[in-house]
Task: inverse folding
């Protein structure tokens, strides 16, 4: 992997953000954006346990999906408060993602501001919460709807790998999915370059998010996240400006995903092997032309 740091600023003017990052689809960390929000000091484990602790949520472990696994299938269900109590006690390889806590506690929307001055098109019905215990991993993927993301970390630290969408074949993207076949867990020490050699050629970014940091992830960016410490983050999503970008995201959601789920249910092994052969051909082509 050819990794470099992400540009980091305390604040940024809207025109500079649009010119240098949004229009060029370059990631950026804004350290001062969330510090202006009440959520910066107000949101913590006990606060969430109190207001939404009784809600049932899906939790996900660190095991990568296989040929039989539909996208976004929870590994277990439990009350949100019980899960947070586990997280508070120590390392736990369980995480929650795409939890719309605001449906259950709409009053907390007042705890942050939508950064409309930086980006338009926010889907304001769906701010999402992501929670992970120390040691939890979000495996390499890109967001299926191809939205732009402002991802703000609250409490704890999280290590992040980022790659532009165009690096997909070097990352061994599984056809008809948003996931990589390769396992990037603990990539610094034990990545399997023997079986996934094209990853050496992938150009990306490495960073660590801390409390209050907001990461701008342009549409389609691949990301892998490892929770160094227990923590949670909020993602604010914005649709792409272009019709083509919106249509591509819609196809992924309602076409590609449903076809892949159907094939996994009907001919899982054949479908898996067919996709695996194709992704290795893509990777070999990348290596041959680099």
Result:
């Amino acid at each position: 992997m050819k990794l470099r740091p992400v540009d980091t600023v305390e604040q940024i003017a809207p025109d500079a953000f649009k010119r240098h990052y949004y229009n060029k689809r370059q990631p950026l960390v804004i350290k001062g954006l969330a510090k202006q929000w009440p959520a910066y000091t107000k949101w913590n484990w006990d606060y969430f346990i109190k207001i939404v602790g009784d809600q049932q949520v899906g939790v996900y472990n660190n095991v990568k999906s296989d040929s039989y696994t539909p996208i976004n299938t929870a590994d277990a269900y439990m009350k949100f408060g019980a899960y947070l109590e586990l997280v508070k006690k120590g390392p736990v390889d369980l995480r929650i993602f795409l939890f719309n806590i605001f449906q259950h506690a709409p009053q907390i929307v007042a705890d942050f501001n939508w950064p409309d001055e930086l980006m338009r098109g926010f889907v304001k019905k769906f701010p999402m919460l992501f929670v992970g215990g120390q040691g939890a991993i979000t495996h390499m993927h890109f967001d299926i709807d191809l939205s732009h993301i402002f991802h703000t970390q609250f409490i704890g630290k999280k290590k992040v790998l980022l790659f532009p969408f165009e690096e997909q074949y070097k990352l061994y993207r599984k056809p008809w999915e948003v996931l990589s076949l390769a396992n990037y867990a603990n990539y610094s020490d034990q990545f399997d370059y023997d079986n996934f050699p094209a990853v050496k050629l992938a150009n990306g970014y490495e960073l660590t998010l801390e409390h209050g940091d907001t990461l701008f992830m342009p549409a389609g960016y691949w990301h892998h996240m490892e929770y160094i410490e227990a923590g949670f983050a909020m993602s604010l999503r914005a649709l792409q400006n272009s019709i083509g970008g919106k249509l591509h995201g819609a196809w992924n959601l309602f076409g590609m995903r449903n076809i892949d789920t159907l094939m996994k249910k009907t001919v899982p092994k054949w479908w898996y092997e067919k996709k695996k052969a194709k992704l290795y051909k893509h990777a070999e082509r990348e290596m041959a032309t680099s």
Notes: The first strand starts at residue 2 and ends at 4. The chain has a mean pLDDT of 90. The chain has one domain: 2-289. Residues 135 and 227 are 5 Å apart (CA to CA).
